[in-house]
Amino acid sequence: MSEREEEFGFAPEDDAPIPYLQRIRDYYQALGYGAPYRWAHYAEVPFAPLRTPLARSRIGLVTTAAPYQRDKGDQGPGAPYNAAAKFYTVYSGASAAEHDLRIAHVGYDRAHTTADDGNTWFPLPALRRLAAAGRIGEVAPRFHGAPTNRSHRATLERDCPELLARVREDKADAVILVAV
Amino acid sequence: MSLAARHLEANGIPTVIMGCAKDIVEYCGVPRFLFSDFPLGNPAGRPNDPESQAATLELALRVLEGAPGPRTTVQSPLRWSADPAWKLDFSNIARLAPEEIARRRAEFDRQKEIARTIRTAPRATR
Predict the structure, then answer these.
(1) Could B57 and A64 be called an inter-chain contact, meaning their C-beta atoms sit closer than 8 Å?
(2) Which positions in chain A touch B33 (Cβ < 8 Å)?
(3) CA distance linking residue A109 with residue B42, whole number of Å
(4) Which of B3, B2, B59 is nearest to B25 (CA)?
(5) If you measure CA to CA, which chain A residue comes closest to B69?
(6) A78, closest residue in chain B (CA to CA)
(7) How many CB atoms lie within 10 A of CB B124?
(8) CA atoms of A33 and A139, how far apart (whole Å)
(9) In chain B, where does DSSP find H-type helix?
(10) Distance between CA atoms of A138 and A131, rounded to whole angstroms?
(11) Which residues of A touch B13 (CB under 8 A)?
């Protein structure tokens, strides 16, 4: 422990959110890929105030997790990265039903998490409990799956409008997006 | 996911993102963000810990209700571990031997090819 940590109660230097932009840029450059990935970046950010109290609101849920597909190889828990399990179009599921969603198709932290509890990336059961308790008005009839597409064009021109259309059909007042 | 939140919001639908990659989400610029300083893969609380999952979702709702404007980030007070050493591992090139870097490159190329095959496959097979 350094002097400042001991004397002033400072946290260790590395105990800060992981600098993913730099970490991932360095990683792929060291692997030999030339031009660094250009992350989405905007100076202006839209904002829509919440107009209805949550207790009277219909809340939608969007996830990047993927439905388990028996014929698509190991999808965990603990599976290595599995591109075969990826999806490239928006999908939807009934919020009242149970779903087995997995995250083997994305680059989560395989060293430090086991991916053995879907509730850590898909809080639909928890959201239903909040509806039952009256914390929110109700859960929207469907949840939606957003593709984790490396093409910004596909995301912006195809997936985002599709998600908006489905959320509008559901008449959701607000949406929780859970990013794995 | 950040792009989807922005698109919904620009069309009048309030959103909150739950996630673990603080700099990536904030660099994009989103309306409301509940950040958990956890390994990627745990945006909705600690695994097998319903109490932490309930607390995380409740905090996301409070961000949805209370954000005064765009780019509101709230960091969950929950800690993944008392020891922050896990933060040094993810995609950290300084910690990888040359053979491991070569192995990862080969595996990345292989997975990219699989993804390309699915992406370009006829829609009916998806």
Answers:
(1) no
(2) none
(3) 9
(4) B2
(5) A47
(6) B41
(7) 5
(8) 43
(9) 2-10, 22-28, 50-66, 98-120
(10) 5
(11) 48, 164, 167-168, 172-175
CA dist., res. B123 & res. A173, Å (int): 31
In a domain, B74, yes or no: yes
CB pairs under 8 A between A and B: 254
Select from B11, B65, B87 the Cβ nearest to the Cβ of A14.
B87
Q: CB A111 to CB B24 under 8 A?
A: no
Domain ranges of chain A: 1-39, 55-178
pTM attached to this predicted model: 0.94
Backbone angles phi, psi at A158, to 5 degrees: -120, -55
Residues 6+ apart with CB under 8 A from B1: A62, A64, A146, A177, A178, A179, B17, B19, B25
Nearest-Cα distance to chain B for A58, in Å, is 11
Is residue B61 in some structural domain?
yes
Nearest to residue B32, comparing CAs of B78, B65, B76? B65
Give the structural domain span for B10.
2-80
Residue with tokens 């792009």: B3
Q: What integer is the mean pLDDT of A30-56? A: 93
CA-derived radius of gyration, chain A = 19
Question: Taking CB atoms and an 8 Å cutoff, what residues of chain B touch A172?
Answer: 13
B46 CB neighbours in chain A (<8 A) are: 120
- Report the domain count for chain B: 1
User: A21 and B25: CB-CB below 8 Å?
Assistant: no
Report yes or no on B109 lying in a domain: no
Strands A66-67 and B15-19, bridge-based pairing: unpaired
Q: What is the ipTM of this complex?
A: 0.95
Which residues of chain B does A27 touch, with a Cβ-Cβ cutoff of 8 Å? 91-93
* A64-119 confidence digits (pLDDT tens): 999 999 999 999 898 999 999 999 999 999 999 999 999 999 989 999 998 999 99
